[in-house]
Amino acid sequence: MLTSLLVPIILSAIALFFASFLSWMVFQLHRDDWKKLEKEDEFLKTMQELDVPLGNYMFPGTNSSKEMNSDEYKQKWEAGPCGVMTVFPKVNMGKKLGLTFVYFLVISFALAYLSTLAIIPGAEFKTVFRFLSTAGLFIFLSSSVQHAIWFHNRIMGHVIESIMYAVIVGLIFGFMWPSA
């Protein structure tokens, strides 16, 4: 049955990719996710002078739980600032877009597989839509919420996107579900 879902899998990935473009570039749901530092030039100069390697950083940081319990660390934490930072190489937009499409393709395939375990051929649109949109919402939303809990990033755009993606997947599979 999974082979009969190849067209909706591919169409879902394409539709999700296009919806992602709309959310970022047209609706600009993520416009307020990132702020510019007031003293960006000084910050960039300091980062260059320190020759900070690529990676993820937490500040204040520790190398062990013992160090995290030290008075020195606790004082740094209380004094602030506290945060996380990612230093990455120059962005290869083509690679990022390609990986985003592959991500949507894998998710669409996984949702199609999951649906074959729960829904029979010939099921009504409403059944297929409800199942796939609910499963899609769980997939698209779950990691964003957990990440926001720990790292305090803004998630409203992700919540709206997740709902939009779930509806798209539900509609495509609902309309293209194989007959009995």
What report would you give on this structure?
This protein is mainly alpha-helical. The chain has seven helices and two strands. A two-stranded antiparallel sheet has the order 1-2. Helix 1 (6-26) runs antiparallel to helix 7 (156-176) and helix 6 (125-151) runs antiparallel to helix 7 (156-176). The chain is elongated and about 65 Å long. The N and C termini lie close together (11 Å). Keywords: Membrane, Transmembrane, Transmembrane helix. The chain crosses the membrane at residues 6-27, 100-122, 128-150, 162-179.
SSE arrangement:
Blueprint: H1 6-26, H2 40-50, E1 55-59, H3 65-68, H4 71-79, E2 83-87, H5 93-118, H6 125-151, H7 156-176
Antiparallel strand pairs: 1-2
Keywords: Membrane, Transmembrane, Transmembrane helix
Transmembrane segments: 6-27, 100-122, 128-150, 162-179
